[in-house]
Amino acid sequence: xxxxxxxxxxxxxxxxxxxxxxxxxxxxxxxxxxxxxxxxxxxxxxxxxxxxxxxxxxxxxxxxxxxxxxxxxxxxxxxxxxxxxxxxxxxxxxxxxxxxxxxxxxxxxxxxxxxxxxxxxxxxxxxxxxxxxxxxxxxxxxxxxxxxxxxxxxxxxxxxxxxxxxxxxxxxxxxxxxxxxxxxxxxxxxxxxxxxxxxxxxxxxxxxxxxxxxxxxxxxxxxxxxxxxxxxxxxxxxxxxxxxxxxxxxxxxxxxxxxxxxxxxxxxxxxxxxxxxxxxxxxxxxxxxxxxxxxxxxxxxxxxxxxxxxxxxxxxxxxxxxxxxxxxxxxxxxxxxxxxxxxxxxxxxxxxxxxxxxx
Length: 359
Hints:
The chain has helices at residues 2-6, 17-41, 47-63, 104-110, 137-143, 171-179, 199-202, 204-207, 309-315, and strands at residues 98-100, 117-120, 150-155, 165-170, 192-197, 242-248, 253-257, 262-269, 272-277, 290-291, 295-296, 325-329, 334-337, 342-347, 351-358. It is of the alpha+beta class.
């Protein structure tokens, strides 16, 4: 299919900047159509075909450029993302329990405690830390067809903020506009977040850089009786863990919320501040209800965890009584979040995380 169309590609037999630009537009349009099919509709039954076309097209572009190479100044490129030394998380007063490289059997026993856990040195073998480094913008751009691939992003600090929105942009625009700036530059309006997206179904080659932690093949407990999730129908048993990517600059926020699955959150690039509240604290956390359009937001708190203290004490007086545990999740660490636990997460630097939901 690709070879048949290359012969009639705009600008294929022409020279000069105009032909080069027209050729690039042709390539980007193919990528746009295929990525939109995956992002918006899931491309059911055609995921493999879409991936084959995109891989073949990328190989052709890299091997047979549309024009003769001309000397030009190279665009500025960073070797690695900023480590975010300019942003510090809150002082840790109620630390989450930490364990070193637990075996699957040790983790299975720990599940009976019903408590969160930070696990160190469990994913150090992932290629994403070494030979295929996700901390390298150049590597990620290469894996996304020179940044041409499209991704869905959230615009703004948090999905509970006024002015929050969504967009679909190229990976290159995402990197250049939002990820390569200083961690101290810009405000909430300059934040974009690739959040809760199955990037690995869209770009399977990135999936080869990580592996599912063995912990996700244990048999975890159901929500504790009397907690909010115990009163809702349980999700069906998953055939395998659900993977999602979370990639954004410093300042991204996942507001205080719960999930209907157990979660292993793995930190591949950068640092995140995480605060967790037990389901037993739910009444002190002011869960939202059904909002405009009939959207059930009961899994999200009304409280802005790091908002103005005086305002929170006035509007949410019970919140200050709620007990919590917290951590700064560093590169190479995993955080086990039990089902139904409320969690607030803030990026302290450019951050790339992978969540594994299982039940």
